Amino acid sequence: MILKKKRWHCIKGQEPTEMDLKIMAFEKKGKLVPTRDLIKTPEQIEGIRRAGVVNTGCLDAVADAIHVGMSTQEIDDICMQFCKDNNATPACLNYEGYPKSVCTSINEVVCHGIPKHDEFLQEGDIINVDMTCIVDGYYADASRMFIIGKTTPEKEKLVKVTKECLEIGAQAAKPYSFVGDIGHAIQKHAEKHGYGVVRDLCGHGVGLDFHEEPEVLHFGYAGTGMLLVPGMVFTIEPMINMGTWKVFLDADDPYGWEIITGDEQPSAQWEHTFLMTDHGVEILTH
Question: Is 237 labelled as part of a ligand binding site?
């Protein structure tokens, strides 16, 4: 007989807390629960919060400068300089061969768009700028959509509904609910508008590393996935496509990073880093 190793353990020499008992009760029912290291300490939370302030400032700097005719490399330059000025490190730079400090994904590029000197923003483009800052060893991750000049009503709606998906997903994230509750709420809202929810990429735990448990899918069934417990830090970052949910890797990208919508229709994404509290989530990247 093979005994299944428990994921949750109480602190040796201490009586189980109310949280310990709740988590163990879910685990006894066969639910996937976090390991104790996924519950951030108050000191770690403050470190992630500081990283969130810098990350937000970086995206604010992009918002102040972004315009028609700007190259995506200029966006990268702004982010790199902001990190230098604020004693931060861009997590993307040299991550598994990624060559830049930020991701700039235009129109049909779902994510991981690489900034380029010869790629210029045009009137009507929609672009996602995805930034992760490391400050004193702590990570914060967020992205925003920008509409360049005046675009079509269809693209405007896609950007708006995608932001609503992020907000609805965050509302579904309650203490002692499940990751699947987030994805279920997002999928329901996106598909109500006829959009596809990308399934090949997901949100994730974050804070002490770039990518931690749990995987935060943006589709699926309520009551599934990992139990969400106060002290966990994770991203929600729905990628919503105007057409099919399917995607492909751009064969022309020499670095092997850029992801394109399967039908090459536009895609949008919004992202925040969230802290689970006793009362719901707190945004750490406002």
Answer: yes
Domains, the chain, in order of start with CATH, read: 33-283 (3.90.230.10)
The token duo for 236 is 């929600």
Go through the chain and tell me how many residues it has: 286
In the block, which residue shows the tokens 């830049």? 100
H-run or E-run covering 261: strand 259-261
pTM score > 0.90 for this model?
yes
**Any binding-site annotation on 130?**
yes
pLDDT tens figures, 248-266: 999 999 999 999 999 999 9
272 is in an annotated binding site: no
Query: In this predicted structure, what is the pLDDT of residue 13?
Result: 81
For residue 112, say whether it is annotated as part of any ligand binding site. Answer: yes
Contact call for residues 178 and 27 (beta carbons, < 8 A): no
Q: Are strands 196-197 and 239-241 parallel, antiparallel or unpaired?
A: antiparallel
**Neighbouring-strand partners of residue 18:** none
